[in-house]
Structures are given as C-alpha cells and as structure tokens.
Amino acid sequence: MIGIVVVSHSRPLAEAAVALASGLLPAGPAPEIAVAAGTTDGGFGTDAAAISVAIKAVDSDAGVLVLLDGGSAIMSAELAVRFLDADLADRVVISSGPLVEGLLAAVTAAASGVGLDAVAVEARQALVGKARRLNPDGATSATPLRLQAPRPQAKARPVSLTWRTPVNNEHGLHIRPSAAIVTSLRGLNADVLISNATTGRGPAAAGSLSALAALEIRRGHVLEARITGPDAEKVRNILADLAARDFGETSGRRRPPRAPREPAASELAVGNGATPAPTASGTQIVVGPIHRRTSVPAVDGYHPGSPKIEFARFNDAVEEVEDYLDALALTRTASAGILHAQALLASDRELAHAVVGRITEGFSAVDAVVEHLTGLARELDALTDPYLRERAQDVRSVRRLLLLALMRKPLAEDDPGEPCVWLVEELDAATATRLDQRLCLGVITTTGGAHGHGALTAEARGIPVLTGREDARALAEGRHVAFDPVTRELWLDPDPTLVTALERLNAERMEAAASALSRAHEPAYTLDGRRVLVEANVSSLADALAAAAAGAEGSGVVRTEILFAARRQAPTAEEQAEVYVALGKTIGGPLSIRTWDAGGDKPVAFFTPSREPNPALGERGIRTMRKARDLFAEQLRGIAMAARETPIRVMFPMVTRPEEVSWARGVLDEALAGLGPVELPVGIMVEVPAAAIRAADFAGLVDFVSIGTNDLAQYTLASDRTNAAVSRLSSLDDPAVWDLIELTCRGLPGKPIAVCGSIANEPDAVARLVSLGVSELSVRPPMVAQIKQAVRQVSE
What is the Cβ-side half-sphere exposure of residue 280, based on CA atoms within 13 angstroms? Predict the structure, then answer.
C-alpha cells in the first residue's frame, strides 16, 4: 500500500485534515500518513528536511504521494525530493490536487489497494464533483456561491511546538525510559506525538508504551516531540528534565566519563599555569614583532552529508572538544574551573537541542554551530553587565573549537618559532592556558575587555594583555610594536631611544612588583598603623583559588548570580551552602556574599525577569527579590547554613531605601528561625546615589556597607559605561563620585566600609579612599599584592 505525506504551512490544519480523512475510513487496512507542516517553533511555514524525513517514514515499494497547500510548500516538496536517494525519488509523486479533498480521495483510493498512479489521479480530480455542483455551466468566470450565514469568530490558535533531543541511553529508548515518558505526561492537557527524527519512524502517541517502543529510537538517534495544547510548554519542560536525566536511567553526565587523554610532552613543557614565571607579573611593558592569529577557523571545503551523518559529526566534535578541554584542565590547574565550564558548555543539552534542530531543518553541522553560537554570543554581547557580557567570549571559544573539530583540524594551535606579540580578535581561556611564556611576550586583542576569561587567565599567568584595541586590527605580521598594559599605551615601530626608556621603566616596575609579591601574604597597614583589609572579588572556585594564592584576606563580594548562572534549576539551600563553604575554605578568609543580583541585564537560567526597556534602572537586585520571595529565602537559608562552618557576611544589592533592608532582614529572620543561632553580619551595596546621600538612614539596619563604584558612577553621571558614545563621562575619578563615597563614610561612622568597584584596583586611588574612611578594598585577585603595597605607603 502506498504512503501519503501531507505538507502544509499550518501544522494544526494538516493534522485536522488527516484526522478527517482517517475518520471517514471503515475499519480495515489504511495507508500510512505522515505530516510535515509548520515550523519548529509552532509557526507557519514549510521545511524541506522535515518533508524528506516524512517521505522516508511512509515509504514502501508501492510509492509515496505528497499532497500540499501551495506557495512555498511546492518548492519545499521539490527540494525534499532532491534530498532523497534516486530509487526513492523515482517513486514519489507530488500531487497538484487540493489538500483536503485530495487527501480524502487519496486515502480512500489507497485503502482499496490501487496503485500510486491511480491514487494520484483520484487526488487530482477530487474537486470535480464540487466544481460541477457549484459551477454547473463550467464557466471559469462564474461568480462563486456566497452564503449569507454570519461569519464565525476566529478561534484562538492552539499552542503548538516542536522539541528535539539526542538520546544518550546505552540501549536507546527501551521500555524503562519509554515508561518514564508515558507516566510523566499523564493527565496533562496536550497531544504529544513522538517520532524518531533520525530514521523518520513515527509519529507515535506519547501515551502508548508499545508505540514508543516501536519507534526503535537508539542511542545517538534524535527524538522529536510535536506538542499541541494548553499544557504544551509544561510538556516540553518535563521532557527536557527527563532528557537531562537520560529518561530516568542516570542523573549524571550526558555520557559516561571518558578516560582523559595523556597530555603531550609539549603541553607539559609549557607549565601548568598555577603560578606565573618568576619575573612575570602581567604588568611588564612588551616590545616585539606582531604575530597574527585568527579567532574564526576557515570552513571552506566542508562537505555536508545527510542529516544522519551531520548528527554523527556534531556528536564526535562535541566529544573531541570535551576531551581537549578536560585534558587542558588537568595540566592547567589555575584555569581548571574555566576550562571545565567551557567543556560543560560544549556538551550542554540546550546547545545540542538547538544545533540538532537546525540540522534537521537542512543545515550542515558547521552552519548549525555557527548560526546558533553566533546568535547566543550576540545576545550576551548585548547585556549591560560587563562581566556577563564577557561570557560571550566563552561561547565564541567553544564555537571555534567545535568548528576546528568539524573541519578535522588540530584544536591546539602551533606555537610561533620566535618570541612575539600575539594579535588576536579575542583571547579565549583555552588559548590563554597554552600560551608559552617563552614565545608569547604579550597579547593584543582588537575586541573584548579586561573581564574576559582569556584576558584574566593570561594575566594570572603573568602574560601582559592589551584589550579592545580596534586600531591594531590592521597591523601586519612581523611589524614591531610596544605596549604598556598599565597605561594602555601602544607604540608602533618604537625607535631605540624609546625602547631604552621603556626598558628602564620596566625594570623599575618589575622591581616594585617583586617587592609587592614578596609581601603578598602579609597584612597591610598604613604608615600610621591602621589596618586595611585587601580582599578579592570572586565569581567562581577558580577565582577563590587565585585569590588565596595572591594573598587575599577574604572575599569582599561573592557574585552569586554568576557563580550559579549556568544552573537551569535554582540551587537548593543545601547545594548553595556546599559551594559557599568550599569558597570560604579555599580562600581562607571571610566571605561577603551578595544575594541574587538578577535582573534584565543580569540573566540567570533559573530566573526569568520581566522584560524592561531600561533594565539598569529597573528591577534588579533586592527589587527583583521582592517578587521572588521563595527564591530569595532559599538563598538566605543556604548562606546561613554555610555561616555555621565558615565566616560569612551577607549583603543586599541595589538598595535604595531603608524599608527594602527591613523587608530583607525579615525574610532572613524567618530563614534563621529553624537553624538556631548563627553569626551572620548584614550589609548593603551602596550603588544608588540616594543610598549614599542618605547613608545615615541605614545605620541601625546594617553592620557594614560595600560601595560598588562602577554602578554608583553610572547612576550618578547618567552615563552607561558600556556605551562608547558616553563612556568618557562615566569616570570613576569624577568629583561627584568621590563626594558620594565621602558622604557614605560620614553617614556611617564606626561601620566597616568596603569598596569593591574598579576604583579599588587603582593603586593611585588607595590613599584617598583610605583617608575618607574606607577600611576594606576588594579587588581582582592579581591586584591584591599591589594594592596591599599601596596601603603600606599611605600616611593619614
């Protein structure tokens, strides 16, 4: 019996037509019918790859008839036939008959057992009866019959979506994982059809265990679910959760752990990155020839295969990238956290879903990786928070590695033959960890900023980096340059006189850096004997490790929204406590944990704030938490649990008025009620000018404050520091910003006052900050030793 494929711009229309045709058949044999309609996001459109898969699904030696609604459906169907093997394409007929009437006629004829040609004729002539009835004279210009019945109101379009996932279960979707799907979706108001998108088998009702088993979805195959109904979103979320746990068969990694490859001898020779070279501080002036590197591999010459082949290539590329990053992490302990995070990103299920979805739409694996990861990086580039915006670099790093793997090129770049200055568009962490300090004098990037993981990794290894120099993009290979990473000056073709002067300045700077490093683990006292704590800003365990190695006396701000940003489910109090305790024990000093600072410009996967036209001035920090009280309370419980094992303070961000602190303390008191006595000082971030001006109003509510000078400057000067057009106005050294710091210190006499913004990293600003009453400075880990040394030179 022939098979039939229904192609339409609308999935609901096609499925309704199939239901009508099937319902009119008497009991007995019936042709197999597949639907290829709508877009993957539930919208209107047609998809050549989906049509091709549908044809394969219903194919038999008797042939396949394709019925469609017109427009782009015709072109998509013709393209789909070209995707097919020649012998299958020869037994496919694209019908010119009407979609609904043609389907009714075709199903009836096929059920009677006639061949493809006869069924095609029946479909093509399906309108003859209607035409004779409504246009008996046969005139083509006849006025159509118009009925005067009232026009019915359009019904709400049902929610309809498509979701795909690769199946990683060792034995595929057998009885146990199939049963997990059936039982998990019971009682939901949605129609769910499951197909094997790799073989084209299906669809099958998700409520039928035997039907799911018959799909023969094996390991590596792609499961496709087409979901329609009010609970469609809920069904997709349940399926995503099941897939993350391999449909109940494991709660661990996406695939079994691999034995890491042994690092090459050349990698071991570069060093493990745990400590910089003895004379390298990352602040040394660099002189040398340019060596150009590209950030985007060439993909010319890639030959796409069938969707099945592209799925396999993508999976192999993911595994190769994971192996590479895991092996780097073994030999580069200081960057292990960053590298493991990038390995997780490469194997991320949502990434796999998106890429697989594009492959099934007809994209090659290369094009699918480029389109999805480039789009994701652009979304991150658009964020206003500079730290989170730099995470786009991690996405582009994974994109680069996946493309190299797909092109069957080495993931590790060859080292140049002589010492030189690297010129790259962007420096990623994987590249930074492999830089040979004997051959890489320094790095110039044409995009990106100082908060990127690549720049931070290189700096931690003592390699100078000059970021965001668009003016260096055209520098030719071999051209001599010099740059100062401290003053950010760049010199082209430096003459001998300049080189001599730079070498002299370099020697002085290196001597000062060596002196600071020698005392990095000593406390910092001013010349008058006043102690100033020098702490580190922390967003990961890797930051804590670097801070401890640098001599930090604790953490002045733990950015929890970044620490847990990759989590799709909100971490429990117990999970958070475990991480906070690990950070405290690693850094060996007290932690100031900032509660969730999520909002429109600081997204986290487990919390979706409302969209706002100006998120920086909207619901952020404590403002957002007032609408997510349970999430806030769970975090406070986790912080309190950790405080029983390691010294911790808690502080609330984006505070404007005292009543916000009163509300937050009320939630904290409830969280503490069931835990018994816990020592947990409470503070606020001073980022809003109103809080600085009225600092005294908070005296009875806080034990300490921390001034976030980056946001304080932005809000005081009404200038977005990420907007190049006004960034010159957003100066941390503006007198108005200094006035607000002074007002904060005066308004809270006797309270510990910390500064955790960029100005704390400036040695020249230390004396003024201390003289105003600042008692703690929280800085980037590599700056700890220098800031301590600056404190020691302060005379009040």
Answer: 21
How many CB atoms lie under 10 A from the CB of residue 330?
Answer: 15
Q: pLDDT per residue over 394-430, tens digit each? A: 888 899 999 999 999 988 766 677 899 999 988 877 7
Q: List the 440-445 sheet strands across, edge first.
A: 465-466, 440-445, 420-424, 286-292, 480-484, 489-492
Cα-trace Rg, the chain = 32
453 is catalytic: yes
Strand partners, 37: 8
DSSP symbol at 696:
G
646-692 confidence digits (pLDDT tens): 999 999 999 999 999 999 999 999 989 878 889 999 999 999 999 99
Active site residue 756: yes
Catalytically annotated residue among 420, 440, 745, 756? 756
Q: pTM to 2 decimals?
A: 0.55
Pick the closest to residue 413 from 512, 350, 328 (CA basis). 328
How far is the CA of 392 from the CAs of 56, 61, 602, in angstroms?
40, 51, 13
Q: Cα 417 from chain centroid?
A: 36
Backbone angles phi, psi at 59, to 5 degrees: -65, 140
Does residue 501 sit in helix, strand or coil?
A: helix
Provide, for the chain, the percentages of residues in helix, strand and coil under a 3-state DSSP scheme, each rounded to the nearest 5. Answer: 45, 15, 40
Question: Of 547, 583, 548, which is closest to residue 562 (Cα–Cα)?
Answer: 583
Report d(CA 208, CA 599) in Å as an integer: 42
Report angle CA 790, 794, 796 to the nearest 5 degrees: 160
DSSP 604: B
pLDDT, greater one: 495 or 86: 495
Q: Are 509 and 547 in contact, with CB atoms under 8 Å apart? A: no
**How many residues does the structure list for the chain?**
796
* DSSP summary character for residue 617: G
The residue annotated as part of the active site, out of 353, 453, 521, 745, is 453
Strands of 201-205's sheet, edge to edge?
160-166, 222-228, 191-196, 201-205
